[in-house]
Amino acid sequence: MTRTIAAAARVAAAGVFGLGFVAIVGSGAAQAAPQDCVVERDLVGASATCQPDGGENYVLHLDCFGLRSTGPFPMYGIGPYTQLSYPFTPTGQRTTVACTGVGPGLIAVATNAYVEIYRG
Prior knowledge:
Blueprint lengths: L1 H24 L2 E4 L5 E5 L3 E6 L6 E13 L6 E9 L4 E2 L3 E5 L9 E11 L2
Antiparallel strand pairs: 1-2, 2-3, 3-7, 4-5, 4-6, 4-8
């Protein structure tokens, strides 16, 4: 079992570093779909700030690809997953989310980031 986990970790690391170039090329500030929202993405995370445009709160969605926890430690999986900036962030405030923090020793890259506005 230890060999299987070690082999999976090596394959994941090679895949993540291969995707790293793609993520770096696509990183930087971008205008999000909702009006008056700015999303900034880097290699492993993203942050967003939305100004009032009819919505009261928003959530930042971050799509990641890499090694992630799939259950109780030490169960890992390789593939895409989503991180969210819950709880809701009030408009005008900045929120940040990263592909890390879902288990010990995990490696992943950010592949997409977008904002979802909630109107009350």
